[in-house]
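pinned: reference chain
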Amino acid sequence: MTGEAEFVRYPFMPAAEKYLRDSGFSIGDITDPSAPKAREIMARAEERILAALARTPPGIRYRDRYVETFSFFLALIVVKAAASAYLERTFARSEGSRSKEAFKNEEPVAMCRIINELFDLHMETVDKLPWRADQEVQMRLTLRVPADRYLETMAKLQLLDNPRLALINNTLHRGYVYLSKYRLVDIVQDQFAVYILQRLRKMERPVKLPSPLQEMTDSIVARLPKPRPSRDLGQYDYIEKMLQTPIMDGRHRVLWLILPPYLVNVKKMSDQEAYDLIIKYLDKCGWHAAGAERLVRYNINRARRIGLLPPRLERLAETNPGLHKAIVEAVSKHEEAK
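pinned: its structure tokens
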């Protein structure tokens, strides 16, 4: 069974919610000085939200599992009370990234248990492959899923357009899809964040909070970036200029990091409009890789589902200097040639 240590890493799991209910802990306990760990839970919840705003996923602390688990649920309440779609997306991505990094280091048995509880994938571990295979393949393919369940779940999670998860790029044998743990990480790449975001969107906004929580909420709202006018797209001028000139380096990163988020979440294009424009741009860049069309559709869908926004040019210089240099040089050459 899932234990408290896993609740720390994956506090959004249904078993963690049951753990919360069974504990009898309520939001009213926060205002009760005699309630165990109330102050610690509040402080950790605020820390998690602020870490999300700073784009530094909070580390995982095992020294007090009670505080670590319950602070997540308290943070959900505060985030919802803040009534900010931006904060909801930012918090979900931060916590999802935290859990994804932990998931990479799980043993296959634990991976199966977690993924099955969340997505009912019917996954199981494999001790020995039912066909002749060299040692490297035997050691790599340690998980399997019924093929019909695999396809059904990939469709439900809107991952069918991800080329890495297509059946043709995986091992199918007698009704089962055989996977490595690294392929499973591909599956959960964004799913933890999506799961948390969906949970937030289904929650009802609290009508009234105890005063300590309301003070925390007000403090966090004051830290949120001021919304820009919808027509103020000046921060993304570089993307419009980039669309006028092909770049030869960093095209994969442009495909998932910049163009889909910009077209669907900033310019509010439909999926088909964004797809047509990106395909036209890739053609201009001379990129005709196999599966490119599916990859484009996957990244458009991904950007829309998780509310991804493209980086500002100055942010790109900090986080991805190589791509920043390629874009700036391409745009500069194009403008010089005018």
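why pinned: The CA atoms of residues 330 and 336 lie 10 Å apart. The chain is about 60% helix and 5% strand.
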